[in-house]
Each structure stands twice: as structure tokens, then as C-alpha cells.
Amino acid sequence: MKYIILFILIIGGKALAFANHHKPVSDTVSTSQILLDTEGKPINAHGAGVLYHEGVYYLFGEIKKGKTWLVPGQNWEDYRVPAGGVSCYSSTDLKHWKNRGVALKVVTNDTSSELDTGRVIERPKVIYNATTKKFVMWLHSDKNDYRASKGGVAVSDKPWGPYRYLGSVKPNGQMLRDMTLFKDDDGKAYLIYSSEENSTMHVCLLSADYLKPTKTYSRILIKENRESPAIFKHNGKYFLVTSGCSGWSPNAADYAIADHIMGPWTQQGNPCKGLNAGSTFSAQGAFILPVYGKPGDFIFMGDIWNKTDLEKSAYLWLPIHVNGDKVEIHNSK
After folding, report:
1. Residue 312 and residue 121: Cα distance in Å, rounded?
2. Sign of CA dihedral 320, 10, 47, 126
């Protein structure tokens, strides 16, 4: 792929119309741009999440760097690169991204540490706790065979870090794999994650400081085998976009809606429309970003995984169109 980035929403001329004038984005945009930071270097932030704080967007993601290798003895294509930690970039316009460095650093040659390069550090998400004045990061922490299946948590006084790792947990004794983090309008925060060998998702209320799971949780999308959750809220309803479980290979997305974050959730089918909709346009979702100050404007953020050379994986960002309970994501090609 050589960093061919389908960064559809942000780079094209129509991106500024979306960000500044609150009108629909044309589907006719470039799909061959290279996403660079303000220093001209490729952005490295996969399985990403975005925090908006005091007029600035902060993009966090997995650092994919180094030779890709296949973990032996697995019943799926468990391709890996050495864990690189969590990167952070900042922007005020969703177009120019400044590299703020490594927000959560890894260690080397310490197999006892969950931050060792031989471990799995995936899908970092950050929210701000207005009471404690702390920035809280949750991520999927695991071993290369995915048997640990835990949620890791870290904190910082600044949005870009450095973040101090506090450890990991299995919420209510249950597996946590692909995950996202959601802060609701009332300030309560939730972990949403694939559990039970990826067969069922859980929604778990966090403690008031966002550092621990509580015993309040629900099982949703039971036995539907969904992962890569990405959530947003619009007009009082919750929308959850997920992927199927097919390793690094793309598959069809699905979305569900609920009147309460704990459910019940009702699946609605594939939101993607157009060529290659059945493979989510060759991508897998990671996060849904509400555009600040523009109610109803959302960005679907995904990864185009290059499974045999993960360092060269690309990105797909597309506008989400919401009309009542109906959600559509349109490809440009």
C-alpha cells in the first residue's frame, strides 16, 4: 500500500466545507493522498480514538512499526509487529496534525511488563475526567496469543501525556478484547468491548474517576460475534457500529441502536453503501468522531489493515449520514 491513505474526509477540498459550513460532504473526493503530520512524516496512529479538549482534537493510536510476524499455533492469522506504544497528534482543524510524541511508552526486554514490546497494546481511547482533572486512557492489553484479554488503564495530567500506566483488569472477571470508551452527556463513562471469546459484547459503567470497572454492566449483541466497536450518540439515541470477526481481513459492518446505552440494542444491518460495502470498503472501524460544534456531523474512522506488513496499513475516514434511526456510510468510489 505504501502509505496510500484513504483519508477521505479530511484532506480533500470538501473537508473544509464539512468542518466549517455544516453541510453534507460530497462523495467525490481523492483516495490517493498520503496523510502526513506537520513535519511531513506519515501519521502512525492505528485503532485510533480522538479526544476533543479546549478547542483541540487529540488523536491517539497504536504505533505500528517493524517487521510483521505470524504468531505460531493460532487458529487464525495472528500477525503482529512489536508493540510500539501509543502515539498522539493534535489538530485544531482536522487537517493539520502535529506530532505530540509517544503518549504511552513501551519497554524492552521485560516480559513481566504489560508494556513490553512483546505484548499487545491496542485500540487506545482517552477521555477527560472533569472532577479529578485527569486524562484517562483505556486500551486492550494482551499477550500475543490473546489469552490475557484485559483492559489496561493509564492517566496523565496533560492530554498528550506522558501517561502513567496503572495496570490491567478483566471487568467483572470477563474477557476484554476489541474495545472503545464513551463519555456520556451526564459525565458517566463506559467501556464497550468484545467478550466471551468475541461472541458477545459488554457495556460496563466505569467508576466516578474512570479508573475501574463497576459491577454495573450488560451483555449485548449476544452470540453475534462482533468486534471493533465504535459508538456515537445523536438526538438522545445511541448508535454502535461494529465489524465481524475475521482477523485482519475486512468484512461487513453492522450497526445497532438503543435508547439507553445499557440496551436493549437492536441491530439494523450494514450501514455501508456503494462499491465494496460488503467489506466496509476494505477497512475495519476504530472510532466515530463527533465534529465539535456541528450537531449531526460524525466521522467514521477506520483502518485498512495490511496484515502481512502492518506498518504499511492505511486509514479510511468517511462522513456518517444520520436520518432518524437510519445510518449510512458512503464510499466515494
Report:
1. 18
2. negative
pTM: predicted TM-score of the whole model, two decimal places: 0.92
Query: How far is 159 from 60, CA to CA, in rounded Å?
Result: 10
**Across-strand partners of 267?**
256
Strand intervals (E) in 157-250: 164-169, 179-183, 189-195, 200-206, 213-220, 226-234, 237-244
Residue 93 CA to residue 125 CA, distance in Å, equals 20
Our measurement of the distance from residue 70's CA atom to the centroid of its chain's CA atoms, rounded to an integer in Å, reads: 23
Domain positions in the chain are: 8-330
Q: Is the peptide bond before 290 cis (omega within 30 degrees of 0)?
A: no
Homologous superfamily of 8-330: Glycosyl hydrolase domain; family 43 (2.115.10.20)
pLDDT of residue 332: 67
Sheet holding 213-220, edge to edge: 179-183, 189-195, 200-206, 213-220
User: pLDDT digit string (tens) for 95-148?
Assistant: 899 999 999 999 999 999 999 999 999 999 999 999 999 999 999 999 999 999
- Give the model's pLDDT for residue 122: 98
Is the pLDDT score of 20 beyond 70? no
What's residue 333's pLDDT?
A: 57
Q: What is the mean pLDDT of the chain?
A: 90
Backbone angle region of 286, left / alpha / beta, with phi > 0 → left and psi within -120 to 50 → alpha: alpha
C-alpha closest to that of 239 among 170, 200, 283, 296: 296
β-bridge mates for residue 33, sequence order = 5
DSSP letter at 294 equals -
pLDDT value of position 331: 84
